[in-house]
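Slide 14.
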Amino acid sequence: MLRDARHVLHGTHVDCDVCVIGGGAAGLTILRELAGSPHSVVLLEGGGLEADGISQALYAGRSVGLPYERLTTARSRYLGGSTNCWGGFSRPLEPNDFQHRPWIPHSGWPLGRDGLEPFYERAQGILGLGPYNYDNGFWSGRTGSAHAALLPLDGEDAAFENRVAQLSPPIRMGEAYRADIGRAANITGFLNANVTELDTNADASAVERVRVSTLGGPSFTVGARIFVLCCGGIENARLLLLSNRVQAAGLGNGQDLVGRCFADHPRFKSSVVRLADQRRHRPLYDVSLCLSRRRLKLPHPSIALAVAPTAALQERRGLPNSRTYLVASYHAKALDAFKAVNELRLLLPRSRCTRFGLPVENAASLLRDAAPRVLKRLPQLAHALFDSAVHPGWWPRAFTMETVLEPIPNPDSRVTLDTDRDAFGRNLPQVDWRLTARDLDAAAETQALLRAELSRRGLILPDGRHGSDSIAPTDIGWCWHHMGTTRMHESPRQGVVDAEGRLHGVGNLYIGGSSVFPTMGSDHPTMTIVALALRLSDRIAGLLQDQRATPPPPAIAASG
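Slide 15: predicted structure.
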C-alpha cells in the first residue's frame, strides 16, 4: 500500500526486511521484483504522486563548474523519478564499455556485458520495449515505412556504424507500476518521506535505521535488515556525505571517493549539413523530429538511429565511445521555449513555500525569466510543431550533427556539500561538473572523422555554415544523466561500492542507479539502471532466503 508520510505519528519506528530509499527507475524495479514475496519491504519516496513545486524545491543546490541546468529542474522529485521526464530511448551499453581500455583512465567494470545480458533482456518488458534485439539487420526491414532507412555504413573499412535505440512509449514507472505496488501486501510505500540521514552502529559496519522527515509534519525512523539507496547520482552521494555521525567524512567515504567522478553525457554540436537523401534518412536520425512527434502522439518508427565509432576506431585513435545524431537547425530555440514552460510547471511556488523556508525562486522571478523565453521563441516553437506534425518531405532542412560523448572519469568533477541548507537544516549539494582537455579533443576529433566519412560516402552535403572548430564552455550541452558518484570497483581504494552494489565496509547497504557506473558509455542509462536493479533484486532475495528467518511485519502507527 501507499501511505502519506505526513500522516504517520511523530516518533514512530518502522521495522522491515528491506528499506528502499527513492522511487525512481532503480527503486521501483526492486519493489516490483520483491512484490508478493514473504519479505516485508518499505519504500521511502521524497515526493508525491505528481509534480509539486514545494517538493521539487528540495532539489535545490549550487552548480560551480561548467554551465549546467539548475538542480531543481534537472531531476523529477515524485514517484517514478526521472522516468517522469525520460524520452524513452533504450539500448544496452556496448561490450567494450565494460572493459578496461588503456586510453580511458579509471575504465573497466568489475563485471562484463555477459554478466548483465539476462538482466537486459528482462528489462525489455519492464520498459515496454519490443523484442530484445539491437541488430541493425533485424531492424532495417522493420522501420514501418518505405521512407525510413538506415545509412549505408557497412564495409570492411567502416570506421563508423549505425546504433539502434528502441523507443519506450515512454514508461512513466510511477504511473505504470503504482497499482501493482499498492496492491502488494508485503510493501508499504511512504510518499513525501524525506530521508535525512543513515544511522549506523558504533563502527559503521551496518546501517541500523534511517531518519525520515516531512515538511511541517512528523519525523520517524525505519529499521531494516537491508537498505538500498536509489536517489540518483547527486542525492546518493549527498546522503552518504550527510551521514557523518560515526565516519566524519561521510559514510563509506574513508578514501574520499564519495561524490567524485560526477558525470553527465556532454553534447557537442558540429557543422550545419544537409542530407543527400532527406526523405529516407531523416525519420530515423533526426532526434528532434522523433521527440516532437512522440510528444504530439503522432506515428513514428519504434526505433531511433545514431552513428558511432566502431570499437576498432576507438582503440586505434584512443577515443571514448560516442553517438551522433541529427538535430533540426531550429530545434535548440524551440526546445528552450519548451523547457521554460516545463520550469514554470515544476517550480512555480505556492503560497506555502515561504512557510517552509525553501530556497526556491519566487513566482515573480520565475515569470521574469521564463515568460520572455517562451515569447521570444514562439516563432521557432510554431515552426517545430508544424514541421513535426506535417513533416513535408519535399522541404529541405538544415541540420547540426550533435555528438553525445562518453565522459572520461574525472575525480575532480564531483558532488560535495554546500554551506547553504535545506528546510530540514541539512547541507545542500554542490555540483562541480568538469570535463578534461581530452574530452574536448575527442569530441572535435570524432566530429571531424565522422564528417569526412559521411561526405566521402556522399551521405551529407555541406550547408556553407561551418561551425567553429573550438569549443567554448557555453557550447557544451548535457543530457540530465547524473552518473559516477558512487562508482563500482572491487577495491575500496578505487570504488565506493563492490561488484554487487554493496557499500564497501557496510554489510547491509546497497546502492542502485547510475551513480555506480564506473564508466558511462554514450547511450542512455535507463536500461542499464533497470538491468542492474534486477541483478541487485536477485541478490537481495537470495540473501534474505539464506537467513531463513521472517521478522514481524512493519509496525506502523498512523495518526487519525
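Speaker note: The radius of gyration is 23 Å.
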